Write a sequence for this structure.
C-alpha cells in the first residue's frame, strides 16, 4: 500500500543541509509532541503537540500593536530593565498567533505548523541531489516522532517511494506495535540513551529507561536496523565514568558490532527557548569541557566501539 501523503501533524522545523543527524547531508523534519520532559531539553518548543507562541523580549520595541491585536486580553505593556516591553499572560493566551502578524519587530513567532506528509516530502525532495551525492537522506526528529506514528510511518514510506534514505532520531519510548510499524521503513536508527540507571532516567526525563533499552535491542537485533547510540552529555547528571561505562557495556553486550556511539555535549540553546515560552529552566547545567569529552570518548573506545563527539 502506498503512503498516505495527506496525513498531517504539527511540524516546528524542516531543516536543510543538516550534517549532524546521520551520515551525509540530510533534511531533518522536526515534529512536535513528546512524552518525555528532559531537564536539559534543547527544543522545549517541541514538548506539546499544538503550535505555541514564542516571544523574544530583547526584540520588543514596546509599540503596543500586539496589545490591541489580542482579543483575549493576554498582552500588556510594562517596564523591564528600564524599557517598556510587551508581556504575555500565559494563563489567558490561547496560542492563536494573531499577535504575531501585528509585531513589526518580529519579537513574536509561532512554533509549529500543521503540515502534511506531502508538504514535508516536497521540501525533502527539493534537496535530493545533495542527499544522494553525499550519501545522506531524510531524518525525522522531534519532539518524539513515535508520538505521531501515522505521520511518521507515512513520511518514511513516502521517502522510500522517492528513493530517499531514511533515519529516525528517537528516545525509543513507545509501544512495540508502534516500534515495529515505524522501523520497518527506517534505514538508520538514531537512539537516545540519556541515562543507564532507571531511577535517574525517571528523575531527569519523567520515564524509566527499561522499556527504552528493550526497544533499542529489538530495533537492532530483531528488526535488523543499524543503530547509532546518541548520548547527551549533561554535566552533573549523566557524565560520570560509571554511567558512560554502563552505556558502553550495554552497547558491547547487546547491540551489533557496527553500532556507533555519538557523545553530544550539552549546549545552552534551550535556555533562551524556554524563556521565550514563558518557562523556567534549570540554569545550573554547564557546557562540558573539551578535555572531559575526550576523556569520556576514551572510555567508550576501550570497549572497541566506534565513537565520535557530536553527530
Amino acid at each position: 500500500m502506498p503512503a498516505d501523503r495527506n496525513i498531517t501533524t504539527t511540524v516546528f522545523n524542516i531543516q536543510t543541509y543538516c550534517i549532524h543527524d546521520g551520515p551525509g547531508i540530510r533534511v531533518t523534519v522536526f515534529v512536535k509532541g513528546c512524552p518525555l520532559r528532559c531537564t536539559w531539553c534543547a527544543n522545549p518548543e517541541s514538548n506539546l503537540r499544538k503550535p505555541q507562541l514564542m516571544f523574544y523580549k530583547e526584540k520588543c520595541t514596546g509599540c503596543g500593536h500586539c496589545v490591541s491585536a489580542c482579543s483575549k486580553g493576554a498582552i500588556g505593556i510594562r517596564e523591564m530593565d528600564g524599557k517598556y516591553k510587551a508581556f504575555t499572560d500565559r494563563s489567558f493566551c490561547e496560542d492563536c498567533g494573531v499577535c504575531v502578524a501585528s509585531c513589526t519587530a518580529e519579537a513574536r513567532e509561532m512554533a509549529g505548523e500543521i503540515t502534511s506528509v506531502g508538504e514535508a516530502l516536497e521540501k525533502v525532495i527539493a534537496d535530493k541531489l545533495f542527499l544522494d551525492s553525499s550519501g545522506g537522506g531524510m531524518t525525522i526528529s522531534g519532539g518524539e516522532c513515535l508520538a505521531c506514528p501515522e505521520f511518521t510511518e507515512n513520511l518514511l514510506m513516502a521517502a522510500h517511494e522517492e528513493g530517499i534514505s531514511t533515519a529516525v532520531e528517537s528516545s525509543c519510548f513507545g509501544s512495540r506495535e508502534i516500534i515495529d510499524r515505524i522501523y520497518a521503513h527506517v534505514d538508520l536508527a538514531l537512539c537516545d540513551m540519556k541515562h543507564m540507571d532507571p531511577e535517574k532516567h525517571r528523575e531527569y526525563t519523567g520515564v524509566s529507561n527499561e522499556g527504552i533499552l528493550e526497544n533499542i535491542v529489538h530495533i537492532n537485533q530483531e528488526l535488523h536496523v543499524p543503530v547509532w547510540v546518541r548520548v547527551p552529555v549533561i554535566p552533573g547528571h549523566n557524565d560520570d565514568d560509571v554511567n558512560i561505562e554502563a552505556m558502553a557495556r550495554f552497547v558491547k553486550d547487546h547491540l551489533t558490532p557496527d553500532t556507533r556511539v555519538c557523545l553530544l555535549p550539552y549546549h545552552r540553546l534551550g535556555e533562551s527557548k524556554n524563556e521565550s515560552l514563558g518557562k523556567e529552566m534549570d540554569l545550573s547545567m554547564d557546557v562540558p569541557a573539551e578535555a572531559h569529552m575526550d576523556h569520556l570518548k576514551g572510555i567508550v573506545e576501550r570497549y572497541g566501539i566506534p565513537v565520535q563527539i557530536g553527530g
